[in-house]
Amino acid sequence: METKTFDLKKLAKHIDKHQKDAEEMEKLTVQYPDMTVEDAYRIQSLWGKLAGARGDRMIGWKMGLTSHAKQESVGVNEPIYGRLTQSMEVAERKLTLNGLIHPRVEPEVAFVMKEKLKGENFTPRDIWAATDFIMPAVEVIDSRYKNFSFTLEDVVADNASSSKFFLGDQAYSPYHTSLSDMTVKLIKNGEIVQSGSGSAVLGHPVRSIIELANMINRFDLAIEPGMVILTGGITEAVTVHDGDDIKVDFGTLGSMELNVTAL
Ligand code: 0L1
Ligand code: MG
User: Fold this and answer.
1) Which ligand 1 atom is at minimum distance from the Cα of 65?
2) How far is the CA of 4 from the centre of ligand 2 (A)?
3) Which residues lie with the beta carbon below 6 Å from any ligand 1 atom?
4) CATH class of 8-93+107-182+194-235
5) Which of 63, 82, 204, 215 is 20 to 30 A from 45 (CA-CA)?
6) For 203-236, what is each residue's pLDDT tens digit?
7) Which residue is closest in CA terms to ligand 1's atom 5?
8) Given this model, what pLDDT does residue 190 score?
9) What whole-number distance in Å separates Cα of residue 141 and Cα of residue 153?
10) pTM over 0.70
11) Per-domain residue ranges for the chain?
12) What is the C-alpha to C-alpha distance for residues 90 and 95, in angstroms, rounded to an integer?
């Protein structure tokens, strides 16, 4: 087996420390330019094990870089995935900035699964049949890299910038509405600052689940029953500051409102 000049476990601990301390770090690829995307997913997996060992259980997956705009900004043509843990889900409608570096919010659709999906090349029908319900969601992304600047390998190792997420109070049937036609507006302090349609997510959010199953199957991993999946940003992510009021209008999936506070 090829011997790496870097220790993946040590890098997972390094990222974990910067996440916990909310402290910016240099890109890993500056010091380790030979790092591959596969190495980066292994670092992410080791990070997941560290979280699990302190009781922060994995509860789902997120897909990132699912829009052309985001892929272009990182210079890639593929999405990425990350791990969602229990401590990332926030039940109250308050986003506390303490513990975060430079958070941004983005509206998403979450799928909650009732059946295991393991394998490749699922069809949309397979995904719908395995879905329990869908929910509107707001993801908070917070890259641990300076200036939110990274390569594909860096962002994968940093768990796809995962930090927190909010799910709406109301769950909906998977057949409630056409998610690709759904228009979503992100309103900050009373002003519409972003809008987009569900089709921004790989053409349709269901495609995001198909892609996730393909990608994790390469590591022999599965989407497990009960897991929540954030399918990807419907609009660009928006920076938030203390005192901001964030409202997301999901059309027929209702709306969500968050207050941003320092503490
Ligand atoms: O959820 C996302 O699409 C974020 C993926 C990572 C890229 C970023 O931090 O903007
Ligand atoms: Mg996202």
Assistant:
1) 3
2) 31
3) 64-65, 70, 139, 141, 143, 155, 160-161, 232-233
4) alpha beta
5) 204
6) 999 999 999 999 999 999 999 999 999 999 999 9
7) 64
8) 98
9) 17
10) yes
11) 8-93+107-182+194-235
12) 8
